[in-house]
Amino acid sequence: MKLELRGITKTFGSLVANDHIDLTVEAGEIHCLLGENGAGKSTLMNVLYGLYQADGGEILLNDDVQHFSGPGDAMRAGIGMVHQHFMLIPVFTVAENVMLGHEPTKAGGRLDLGAARAKVREISDRFGFDVDPDALVDDLPVGVQQRVEIIKALSRDAKVLVFDEPTAVLTPQETDELMAIMRQLKAAGTSIVFITHKLREVREVADRITVIRLGKVVGEAEPTASNAELASLMVGRAVELTVQKEAPTLGEVGLSVSGLTVVDAIGQVVVNDVSFDVRRGEVLAIAGVQGNGQTELTEALVGLQERVEGSITLDGTELNGSSVRAVLDAGVGFVPEDRKEDGLVGEFSIAENLMLDRADGAPFVKNGALQLTTLTAFARDKVAEFDVRTPSIETPVARLSGGNQQKVVLARELSRDLRLFVAAQPTRGVDVGSIEFIHKRVIETRDAGVPVIVVSTELDEVTALADRIMVMYRGRVVGIVPGDTSRDVLGLMMAGEAPQNEGVAA
Questions:
Q1: Per-residue pLDDT tens for 170-195?
Q2: Residue 139 is part of a domain; what is its CATH number?
Q3: Which of 199, 231, 242, 475 has the fewest CB atoms lying closer than 10 Å?
Q4: Do 284 and 379 fall into the same domain?
């Protein structure tokens, strides 16, 4: 099915999110929509899907003008959408999620769950998804949950499939699997709109590329375009794609972790006897496939895990057993891996989010009263320093793009007197321009003599930032290796194979 958008315009008050955008996606084509966070990509697709009503322009399918009053109209016309944040009910099975909203029925109006199961099996077998119709969604890995979203769309006969930042929560292995699935869908005649900001993925699967900046189409490119050319189109300037850093000036050990073991709520050991040190002026990157204990390790460091054994000392002070408040007061800055759930309060303003972990005293609270003048000046300063794209410091943070939300978290955590900085997935779901900015701030923090821990599933990010790399597998440390260790060696370590180099910690 051919999709054509003509002159699509969408405004929110004084903000023009989409400014007369034209886009054509041919039948059986993977068309990549590339742009920074906040460029207007997702808004455009929400207009296509009927979630927003355009203020101007037309949507055409096979040259026929469409009028969508909601997602139901879009789905009936053959448009499906796989959202960045999955629209699944965790306590329902795969089949129940797939049938939700267009439930097959038997005689007497009874639900026909068997028909839903058969539909899941048919689509799963056709594309090699290997999805169990009776599995609870909550029990499935993230990559499989995404397949369920795809099955949902295909079960409604989607001829145009929109993937909105589909790899933001996937591991490298799951990303490769998704690329293969997209090629299969294309071969079956499905038209695909692929929204992303990851240049490697664009060049790997796109047939054509349209670049959006600040709500406007600023150019088209072929997949043969270089990363530098694509990045320049995205942000309107030359972008430094490599991290510039000098050799570290190492100080004494700042953080020392010994025999750290974490047991989860159901009694499983998720971090198993982990020991390491981080020196002042050093970045220790923790690598591994998602789900091998990295999340629980970082949460233990900041007091978010309850069943923790072992020692965590910061500048000689024991932190294990301390409250989160006490850990933060000890000078620990923490960027959680899920900014929406753990890093921000969506309905709070940017200014309010910037004072979240300092709302109990100076400089923002005095004698129980909020110091609005102080907070306003601080918020404006940080919005400017961290280049947060927003109409106002009073804007609810939920209205910001993912990259700008991440900048708010970083601005808050890096604006205190730090003795340790822990950043989990610091650039997840963030565009290339924001990645450049975040990486610079991480290195600046390291160069200021602060011990830094970066947890990332992106190997390019790990090797770019790390002075040393610790690889985890099934809750244990496979090894600690130099920052310039090859991707091949790191890949083997991520699969549980210990490094062969003598003198490497394991």
A1: 666 677 888 888 899 999 899 999 99
A2: 3.40.50.300
A3: 242
A4: yes
